[in-house]
Amino acid sequence: MSSTSSPAPARTDAPALQHARGVATAIAVEAGDLAMSWYHRGVATEEKGHADLVSEADRQVEALVKRRLVEAFPEDAVVGEEGTGPTSVPTEGARRWYVDPIDGTTNFLKGLPDWGVSIGLAGPADELLVGVIVMPRHGTLFSAARGMGATRNGVPIHASTVDRVDRTLMCYALTARAPEAWGGPDRMRAGYLALVGNALGTRMQGCSVADLTSVATGVIDASWAGGMSPWDVAAGLTIVLEAGARVTDVEGNPVTTVTTDFLASPPAVHDELRALITGG
C-alpha cells in the first residue's frame, strides 16, 4: 500500500460555501475601496489588444484579491484576468476562484459608474458555488452561494417575473468572439433585430457584472451574452441563478457551471426569447 495520501476533496458543503462567501465579501469590499482610490485620482490607460483596455488599477486590485484568497484558501486555485499577484495551486482537482478586478474597465477609465469587482468560486468541475460583486460607484454589494439565495447589501433579491416578451427589457454583452457560439454574424444580426422588434427595449451597459446584477434585481429583465471570459461571469451567474432567473447555454441546456455564452431571463419568457435569438 502506498504511503502517499490522496488530496482531500474540495469542500462544497453549505458551511464551507457560507465561509467562502463571507471571506470573499470582505475581500471584495477591500478591493472596491482600492479601485475607488484609483478612480478618483485617475490612472493611465494601456492597451492589451484591439479595443481591450487595462490600467495599473486593474493589476493592483487583482494582486490584492489574489493575495487575500491565497492566504485564506491555500488549497484553492485562483484565476485572474490580468495574471498578476501570487501563484496559486493548479486548477486540476481544486476549487477555483475567478477574479475580475475591474469588470467594465472602459467604463472605469472613462469615468462612467457601471464597473465592479467580481469574485466567483467554482468547484473542481467548474460548478457555480459562490459569487460576490461590489459596485463601488453605486454603493452596492451583491453576494450569493449555491442553495442560499442572493442578496444586495444584505437584503434578498429576486429576478423579474415578467411573462410577456413585449414587456421584457433586454441587455446584451456580445464580444467579437460571440458569433462563434451563436451561429455566425448573420444569425446574430437577425437575432438582435428580432429582439429589437419584439422586446420592450435593449440596452448595452458595457459591463457583465452590471448586466447580471441588473437581471438578478429585476431592474433589467434579461441578458444575452456571448464571447465572455470565465472571470467576467463566474460570480454574476451564481447571483442571477440564486435570484431565480433561468439561464441556459447556446444549446438550451441549463447552466450550472461557468459558462461564457448564455441567455438569462425570467422563466416565463425564456423559450420565446431564445427562439428569437437562435431563429429556432
UniProtKB/TrEMBL annotation:
GO terms for biological process: inositol metabolic process; signal transduction. The keyword tRNA processing does not apply. GO terms for molecular function: inositol monophosphate 1-phosphatase activity; metal ion binding. Keywords: Hydrolase, Magnesium, Metal-binding. Mg(2+) binds at E81, D100, I102, D103, D232. Its cofactor is Mg(2+). It comes from the Bacteria. PANTHER family: INOSITOL MONOPHOSPHATASE (PTHR20854), INOSITOL-1-MONOPHOSPHATASE-RELATED (PTHR20854:SF4). This is Inositol-1-monophosphatase. It comes from Euzebya pacifica. The lineage of its organism: Bacteria, Bacillati, Actinomycetota, Nitriliruptoria, Euzebyales.
